[in-house]
Amino acid sequence: MLLSPVTLSVVTPMYNEREAVDHFVARLRPVLDGLGDSYEVVAVDDGSSDATVSRLMQLRAEWPQLRVVALRRNVGHQTALRAGLRAAKGAYVVSIDADLQDPPEVIGEMLAAARREKVDVVYGVRSDRSTDTAFKRQTAGLYYRVMRKLVGPWVSDQAGDFRLMSRAVVDVLNGLPEPRPVYRLIVPSLGFSSAEVPYVRAERVAGETKYPLSKMIKLTLDSVTSFSAAPLKIATWLGLFSFFLCVVLMIVALITWLADAVVPGWTSLYVAVLLLGGIQLICLGLLGEYIGRIYAASQGRPPFLVAFDTAALDVTDSVATPVPGGPLDDDVEAVELAGQAPSRRP
Questions:
Q1: Cα–Cα distance, 268 to 319 (Å, whole number)
Q2: In tens digits, what is the pLDDT along the chain, a chain of 346 residues?
């Protein structure tokens, strides 16, 4: 348990990263030990189904600065990152993934830049993404172009979730009520002073990507609906378009009737019904996305619950004390340390 003030917290969400954990720790620990500042590493297990937690607990026995926060179930990368930010104690907080595509060696440059330039945020900016597939680069480029149009020009087109933030920024983020935060958009939108540190993006060290196409689409949907009402405006324009199209069809039908050239046919009717029906369904779907988020927010359910946090372990009697699991803390249990990862209640 860390008793002294912590200068730097490194938050890393993990989901089924057993194959990458050892590589990640081997790269990260020498970097942090060489900084000369007190630190903690907050490894947030996002409901992994492999041996990620068990291996982290083994590594913690040799690395006391390693802190394991295990969530009760998989809640997604951004929400797991939120759990890590709430748990972090450092004056500066770095968020980084465990796949080593973002090099831990850049953390020292980030910290130095924050102190030298007296800024609150230092973004890790990818200067080279050649290790990513062409499809990944194209879709990522499209995502950031759309976000810059919707959110604002301050969104970097090459900055992901690898960043350093001051305690002031983290406190603001922890106070936000958003149920589905997208930090790569929220952080720049706050307007804190910032700097950038370029780096070359590497290949994933082990395992498979945790951001397949389906999750990329979900991230895009969350990003758009969280930061812009543009989809609702699209629905309005589609409605206007369909209205004017109906007016044109009515005029054509009237002229055809007056000219006594009415020919029974199904094509025009079929096309009109499909077009109007499709537009209506699109509009209802867009409205449903926003209403669904309002409904989820009104329920007030916690976005995550912590099964255990090793920072609460008392080395004297080997019993963990209850810790809050997010916005609500009534579902948190005491945990006993028995040489293995404490079990999570189903």
A1: 74
A2: 444 489 999 999 999 999 999 999 999 999 999 999 999 999 999 999 999 999 999 999 999 999 999 999 998 888 899 999 999 999 999 999 999 999 999 999 999 999 999 999 999 988 776 666 676 677 766 766 777 776 677 667 667 789 999 999 999 999 988 777 888 888 888 889 999 999 888 887 776 665 666 666 766 666 666 666 666 666 666 666 776 776 676 676 667 667 766 566 655 665 677 667 767 777 777 777 777 667 666 756 677 788 888 887 633 334 333 444 443 343 333 333 333 444 454 4
Q: Do 93 and 185 fall into the same domain?
A: yes
Residues 6+ apart with CB under 8 A from 153: none
User: Quick one: 173 and 249 in the same domain?
Assistant: no
H/E element, 162? strand 159-166
Please report how many Cα atoms fall inside a 13 Å half-sphere around the Cα of residue 90, on the Cβ side: 24
Tell me, yes or no, whether 46 and 190 share the same domain.
Answer: yes
Question: Which range of residues forms the domain containing residue 51?
Answer: 8-211+302-320
Q: Classify residue 159: in a domain, yes or no.
A: yes
Residue 267 lies in a domain: yes
Three-state SS for 32? helix
- 172 and 60 in one domain? yes
Query: Same domain for 17 and 58?
Result: yes
| CA atoms of 12 and 25, how far apart (whole Å) | 11
Please indicate, yes or no, whether residues 249 and 279 belong to a single structural domain of this protein: yes
pTM of the model: 0.68
Whether residue 240 sits in one domain with residue 140? no
Number of domains in the chain: 2
Token pair for residue 153? 């020009």
- Look up residue 35 and give its DSSP letter: T
Do the bridges between strand 159-166 and strand 92-95 make them parallel or antiparallel, or are there none, so unpaired?
Answer: antiparallel
